[in-house]
């Protein structure tokens, strides 16, 4: 069963060799105590029925693949977006290992993040000693300019007070009194990764601006603040920079990890790269306004901007697709007095041309989708613009106001009349929906591949292909560098969607002498 040096194979196709198939069969027979295959297939088929769906949707005490992550994960991503900032998680080491590997697998990059490694004694007596040693060591070893502190479940369950612990660490001389240590409580057992991002960002603003508002005046620096929210498409940061520069707008993109999460392989390791500067954060209250690019996930930030910074936080939708990108750019123009340049009008025209070219293939196609609130809303809006028909739209951690806004948007379109919006549901619910209300395609993150596999197992005619747009994308490379915002993002999304439709059509029409009358060279 050994490998051959001249023909090293991965597990597939290696495990399909006869000797491995025999070994796996023996293991199954000797150790698995499995039910007969007929019983497994019987139960599987039952899980694809309406009867099972009703039972599935009535469960209360169990979540199966929730289609969200926990708060500290979002806090870490937010902290990475600031210049020379080390994310510091007060809690157990295993949690931080999870956050780092989660981002490693998505971005294919090393991710800097430290923990003070609370264990059993800290769980009983509190984690202040861990905090003191951790802050001192993190500063000495990694030489950051900011340490951004968040928490895990352990620290939150026992009630550790970050403000008190950090202040005590400074009083005891473990780090200098003036060293920047913004913080946020991010309990994993409530909210989601988007909540954690919001909490950490509000903590950043609070630390650098709350006690320094006396000399601040709204509009005095002539800038616009852009807050991205939990954003994992690096192209979205870059397209914001490009559009603002083409418009000649003075702006600050508050939290921008696009460099530290996309460093080159040139022989130099960069623990820190790029990011929003402290000066930009301190100057944020002087801006004309602060626009939240993902408003449904930034409630705490919105409240701070309006009540402490006294800016309106003008309402916008996530700038995805044609209409909402139009609205975003027109709002920027209105706030700054800068005209929309010919370059962006040209880009818009190209998008409209693409939509015209492809609408016949997208029209009437059915899509089920899941993901974060703003992304799902923006993607649904774009599908409606293309004449596609969303069937089921799921966001686990969205609220009732979001669902109401979704319902209104869908009812205003002839293509959204039959769409059902689901909140508080997980991917096992979504699996039921894909079987009982079969779409042509799913849109979501990598976890949807197991649902595609299950639909294929039921029979080739039941298979629902997954189009990977969202977070995380673990099983494909380089998609995190793509763009979903602005006209550029719409161009990428349309290219991805329509070519998935055409790829599926080729798959269904390649039967020689049976279906290949529609296996066309030109589509």
TrEMBL record:
Domain Nitrogenase/oxidoreductase component, chain residue ranges per copy: 70-501
EC number(s) recorded for this UniProt protein: 1.18.6.1
Chain segments annotated as transmembrane: none
GO cellular component: molybdenum-iron nitrogenase complex
Assigned keywords, A-Z: ATP-binding, Iron, Iron-sulfur, Metal-binding, Nitrogen fixation, Nucleotide-binding, Oxidoreductase
Nitrogenase molybdenum-iron protein beta chain N-terminal domain ranges (all copies): 1-56
Cofactor field: [8Fe-7S] cluster
Cofactor note: Binds 1 [8Fe-7S] cluster per heterodimer.
InterPro entries: ChlB/BchB/BchZ (IPR050152), Nase/OxRdtase_comp1 (IPR000510), Nase_comp1_CS (IPR000318), Nase_Mo-Fe_CF_bsu (IPR005976), Nase_Mo-Fe_CF_bsu_N (IPR024564)
GO molecular function, one term: metal ion binding
Catalytic activity: N2 + 8 reduced [2Fe-2S]-[ferredoxin] + 16 ATP + 16 H2O = H2 + 8 oxidized [2Fe-2S]-[ferredoxin] + 2 NH4(+) + 16 ADP + 16 phosphate + 6 H(+)
Similarity comment: Belongs to the NifD/NifK/NifE/NifN family.
Oligomeric form and interacting partners: Tetramer of two alpha and two beta chains. Forms complex with the iron protein (nitrogenase component 2).
Function noted in UniProt: This molybdenum-iron protein is part of the nitrogenase complex that catalyzes the key enzymatic reactions in nitrogen fixation.
Name this polypeptide is given: Nitrogenase molybdenum-iron protein beta chain
């Amino acid at each position: 069963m050994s490998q051959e040096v001249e023909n090293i194979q991965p597990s597939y196709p290696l495990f399909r060799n006869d000797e491995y198939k025999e070994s796996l069969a023996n293991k199954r027979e000797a150790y698995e105590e499995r039910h007969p295959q007929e019983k497994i297939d019987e139960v599987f088929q039952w899980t694809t029925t309406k009867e099972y769906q009703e039972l599935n949707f009535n469960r209360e005490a169990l979540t199966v693949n929730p289609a969200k992550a926990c708060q500290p994960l979002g806090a870490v991503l937010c902290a990475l977006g600031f210049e020379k900032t080390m994310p510091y998680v007060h809690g157990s080491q295993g949690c931080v290992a999870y956050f780092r590997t989660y981002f490693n697998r998505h971005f294919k990059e090393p991710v800097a993040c430290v923990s003070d490694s609370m264990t059993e004694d800290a769980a009983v007596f509190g984690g202040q000693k861990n905090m003191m040693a951790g802050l001192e060591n993190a500063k000495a070893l990694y030489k950051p300019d900011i340490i951004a502190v968040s928490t895990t479940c352990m620290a939150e369950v026992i009630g550790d007070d970050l403000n008190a612990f950090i202040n005590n660490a400074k009083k005891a001389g473990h780090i200098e009194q003036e060293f920047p240590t913004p913080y946020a409580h991010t309990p994993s057992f409530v909210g989601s990764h988007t909540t954690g991002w919001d909490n950490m960002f509000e903590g950043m603003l609070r630390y650098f601006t709350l006690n320094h508002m006396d000399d601040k005046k709204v509009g005095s620096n002539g800038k616009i603040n852009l807050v991205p929210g939990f954003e994992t498409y690096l192209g979205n940061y870059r397209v914001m920079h490009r559009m603002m520069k083409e418009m000649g707008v003075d702006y600050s993109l508050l939290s921008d990890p696009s460099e530290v999460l996309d460093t080159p392989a040139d022989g130099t390791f960069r623990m820190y790269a790029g990011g929003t500067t402290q000066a930009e954060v301190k100057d944020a209250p002087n801006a004309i306004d602060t626009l939240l690019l993902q408003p449904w996930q930034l409630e705490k930030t919105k409240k701070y901007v309006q009540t402490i910074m006294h800016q309106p936080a003008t309402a916008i939708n996530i700038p995805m697709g044609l209409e909402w990108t139009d609205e975003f750019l027109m709002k920027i123009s209105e706030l700054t007095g800068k005209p929309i340049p010919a370059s962006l009008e040209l880009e818009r025209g190209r998008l409209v041309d693409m939509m015209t070219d492809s609408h016949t293939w997208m029209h009437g196609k059915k899509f089920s989708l899941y993901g974060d609130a703003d992304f799902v809303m923006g993607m649904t809006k774009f599908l409606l613009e293309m004449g596609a028909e969303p069937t089921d739209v799921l966001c686990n951690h969205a609220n009732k106001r979001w669902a109401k806004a979704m319902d209104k948007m869908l009812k205003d379109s002839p293509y959204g009349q039959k769409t059902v919006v689901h909140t508080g549901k997980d991917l096992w619910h979504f699996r039921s929906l894909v079987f009982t209300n079969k779409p042509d395609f799913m849109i979501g993150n990598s976890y949807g591949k197991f649902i595609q596999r299950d639909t294929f197992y039921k029979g080739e005619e039941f298979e629902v292909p997954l189009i990977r747009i969202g977070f995380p994308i673990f099983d494909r490379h380089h998609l995190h560098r793509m763009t979903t915002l602005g006209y550029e993002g719409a161009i990428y999304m349309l290219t991805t969607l329509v070519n998935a439709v055409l790829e599926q059509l080729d798959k269904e029409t390649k039967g020689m002498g049976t279906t290949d009358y529609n296996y066309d060279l030109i589509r």
